[in-house]
C-alpha cells in the first residue's frame, strides 16, 4: 500500500499530543475530585465508577482520527489487471549452438514449443511479433494480435553461425516503436529474448539494453541449455564434436540494465515453465487502486461508535 499525498500523514503526529492532553485532563479531574471528597469516602459517594469505560470512547475517537488522516493522504494499493494493449517481440537465437540436444529435442526446438504455448496464453489483445537472429536479425513476423501468424512464423527458423544480440535488440526496438500509437502514445512494449550465449558479433548489447530502458521497454532474457551442450561441426571430411556450454552472464546483465528479468532453463520443462510465467507477467499490469473510501468509511464508523458509547455510558458525546 502507498499514499498519493504522503505528507498528509504528518497529521498523525497530532495523535500523541492528543493523548498527552487527555492524560493531563484526567489528572486534573482526579485532583479536582480529591479536593471535594476525602479518598476514604470515594467508594460511598461513587459506588459505580466507570473505571476503564471512561477511556474507551476517547480511544475510539483517536483511532477514528488516525483513519480519517490516512484517508486524507489518499491511500492506494497495487492491483493486477489484464493488459488490454501492448506489444511483445520474441527474439529467438538461431546460432549454430542452438542445435545442441542437451535440451530435448534441441535448444531451438524446445524454445519453439515453449514460445507457441506462450502465444496460446498471452491475451489476444496483446500484439506479438517474432525475430530470429544469428549474425543478423530477420523479422519473421511484425507485432500482431493474430497470434496464429506469429506461431506459424516459427516454421521459418533456420540455424546459422554467429550471435548478434545487440543487433537483435535494436531490430526488436525498431519493431516495437513502429506499432501504431494508441491515444497518442506508444503501447507498453517488452522483448522476450531466448539465447544460449553471449554476443560475438555486432554492437555492444549492454549499450542497446540501456537504450531499451530509456524507452521503458524491458528485456526478459531466457538462457537455455546446460554446461554440457555439444554440436557436430564438419571440417572437410571430418565431423568434430564441439562443446557449446550455455553462457547466461551477459543475458543477465541485459535484463538488469533494461529493467527486465533474467531466467535460465536447463530442460524443456523448465523452459515451458519460464514461458508460462512470462505469459502471466506480461499479460497483466499493475495499476493503482484508490482505497480512500474504505479508510474514510472506517473513520466515520469509529466516530459513530465512540459517540454511541459515550452517550450510552455517560450521557454526553465527549
List keywords for this structure.
318 residues; alpha/beta; Rossmann fold; six-stranded mixed β-sheet; three-stranded antiparallel β-sheet; 11 strands
Task: Return the CATH class of the largest domain.
Answer: Alpha Beta
Order of helices and strands: EHHHEEHEEHHEHEEEHEHEH
How many domains comprise the coordinates? 2
Low-pLDDT segments: none
Shape: elongated
Strands of the biggest beta sheet: in what spatial order? 5-4-3-6-7-10
**What does the radius of gyration come to?**
33 Å
What is the helix content? 40-55%
The major pleated sheet works out as: 6 strands, mixed
Termini distance?
A: 33 Å
Any idea what the CATH architecture of the largest domain is? Answer: 3-Layer(aba) Sandwich
Structural class based on helices, strands and sheet pairing: alpha/beta
Characterise this structure.
The chain has helices spanning 14-36, 42-45, 56-72, 107-121, 147-153, 165-177, 205-214, 249-258, 268-282, 292-314; strands spanning 2-3, 75-82, 87-93, 127-133, 137-144, 189-195, 219-224, 230-235, 238-243, 262-265, 284-290. It contains ten helices and eleven strands. β3, α4 and β4 form a beta-alpha-beta unit. The strands form three sheets. A six-stranded mixed β-sheet has the order 5-4-3-6-7-10, with helices on both faces. A three-stranded antiparallel β-sheet has the order 1-2-11. It has two domains: 2-78 and 289-314, no CATH class; 84-282, von Willebrand factor, type A domain (Rossmann fold, 3-Layer(aba) Sandwich). It is of the alpha/beta class and 318 residues long. α3 (56-72) runs antiparallel to α10 (292-314) and α4 (107-121) runs parallel beside α9.
